[in-house]
Amino acid sequence: MSSYDNKKFIFKIALIATLGGLLFGYDTAVISGAEQSLQKYITADYGSFVHGITVSSALIGCIIGGILSSNISKSLGRKKSLQVAAVLFTISAILSGYPEFLFFDTGESSLGLLIMFNIYRIIGGIGVGLASAISPMYISEISPSSIRGRLVSWNQFAIIFGMLVVYFVNYGITFGQPQKWVDLIGWRYMFMTEAIPAVVFFVLLFLVPETPRYLILVNKDKDALNVLNKIYSSSEHAKKVLNDILSTKSKTKEIKAPLFSFGKTVIIIGILLSIFQQFIGINVALYYAPRIFENLGVGSNTSMMQTVVMGLVNVIFTLIAIIYVDKFGRKPLLIIGSTGMAIGMIGMSVLTANGVFGIITLIFMVIYTASFMMSWGPIIWVLLSEIFPNRIRSGAMAIAVAVQWLANFTITSTYPFMMDISGTMTYGFYAAMSILSGIFVWKFIPETKGKTLEELETIWQKDKKVKTTSDNVEPPVFTESIQDRS
C-alpha cells in the first residue's frame, strides 16, 4: 500500500460497498432453505418444471439488472445506483415473504399468487444484477491502484459470505421446529430477514462518497478532488491523481472498435467460460442444497446443518483462490478445480445409482463445492476482466455476463425436472461438464498471470488493425482556480 493512502477511510468505504456483494449472495442463496416449502404451498399444482422456474425466477431479474446497470450507473452515479439496488432488495425480501399482500388470502394457493411471488423475486433479482455489476465498479473506481485488486476481491468474498450467513439464518429458523411450521411460516422469515442487511446497506451508503471518476465524468472536478483528498493523505498526490484522470478523459479518442475486431475466438471463449461456470452445476448445489441432502437420506434439520458446513467450505476455499490466483496462475487452478468437481459429481452419481447414502455423500459434495470455490467461482471473473481487449471490453463483458445469468437460469430451473427423470443422470451430466471444462481450459485458455492487458491484447490481434484517430490537444490540468464545468 502506498504511503499516500488513507487506509482507514479507504477500508471503510470499500467495506460498505461490499455489502452489495453480501446481499447478492444472500438473495441468490436464501431460496435454498425455502424451496421445498414453496413447492408445497405455491407450486404444488403445477409440476416440477414450474417449480424449477419459480426457484430460479430471480435470475430473470438478474439478467434485466445486469443489462440496465450500465445506463443506471451513468445517469444516477455509482452510489445512488447501489441505493436503488438496496431498495429493490428490501421490497423483494418483504413481499416474497408475504406474497399475499393486498391481493390474496393467506393460506390459499392460486395461479395469481404464483405469478406475484415470481414478480417479487424478479424485483430482487434486478437488485442482484445491479449489485453484481456496480459494487465491484464502485470499489475499483474508489481504490488506489496499489490495492485495487485486493479490494475488488473482497466483493467476491462478500458474495460467498452472504451465502454462508443465509445458510446459518435458515438453519436457525428451522432448528427445533416441526416441518409443518416451516412450511406455513418459517419460509417467510427466511425471505424477510434479507430486509435487515438491505436497509443497513441503504443507510450506510449515505456515509460514502461518489467515486471521483464518476464525478469527473459529470464535470464535478472540485467534488472529485475533495474525495481524492480523503483517499490520499497528501493533497499534492490527490491533485496528481485528479490530473491523471482528467488526462485520460480528454485523451485522444479512438474510433470505437467493432465487437469482432479481434476475431470471433475471444468472444466465443468468453461466452463458453460463462456457460461452463454454470453448466457444471454449482448453483444447483447452492440453491437446492437442503433438498439434495434430504434426497440422499438425511433429515431436514441435518440437511440444513450440512448446508452450513458447505457454506463454511465455500468461504475457506474462496480465500484460497484470492491468495493464490496471482501465485499459481489462472489455468492451473481452473484445471485442478475441474478435476475436483468431476470427482465430486462422479461420486454423487455413483452413490445415487447404488442407493448408498450417509456422510460419504457430504464428503463428495464438499469436494465438489470446494473445488469450484477455489477455481471457477472467483477466477472466471478475473479472466473475463483480462482476456477482452480494451477497445471491445465493455461490449464483450456485457455479452459474457448476460450469457452467464441465462445459463444460470437454464441449469437451475431444469434441475427438479432432471431429478424426476434420474438423479444418476443429473449428477453425471454435471460431472461431464466438469471434465469438458477442464479440457476447454487446457486447450484454449491462455495464461494471463503476470501479463499486462496490452500484452494480452496481442494474443487476439488480427492482421487488420483497428483504425484510430488522434487530436493533438493538450490535456487540461486542474488548478485551484478551475471551477466545476457545466
Please give a structural write-up.
This protein has 486 residues and is an all-alpha fold. 75% of the residues lie in helices and 0% in strands. It has 23 helices and no strands.
Observed structural traits:
single chain, mainly alpha, 486 residues, 23 helices
Describe the secondary structure blueprint for this structure.
Blueprint: H1 7-29, H2 31-41, H3 47-56, H4 58-76, H5 78-97, H6 111-142, H7 148-174, H8 179-192, H9 195-204, H10 212-217, H11 221-231, H12 235-250, H13 265-279, H14 282-287, H15 289-295, H16 300-328, H17 330-354, H18 359-373, H19 378-387, H20 393-413, H21 415-421, H22 423-444, H23 453-460
Helix pairs in contact: 1-5, 1-6, 1-7, 1-9, 2-8, 3-20, 3-21, 4-5, 4-6, 4-20, 5-6, 5-8, 5-9, 6-7, 7-8, 7-16, 11-12, 13-20, 13-22, 15-16, 16-17, 16-18, 17-18, 17-22, 21-22
Strand content is: under 5%
Report the count of strand segments. Answer: 0
End-to-end Cα distance:
35 Å
Overall radius of gyration: 23 Å
Helix content: over 70%
Largest sheet: none
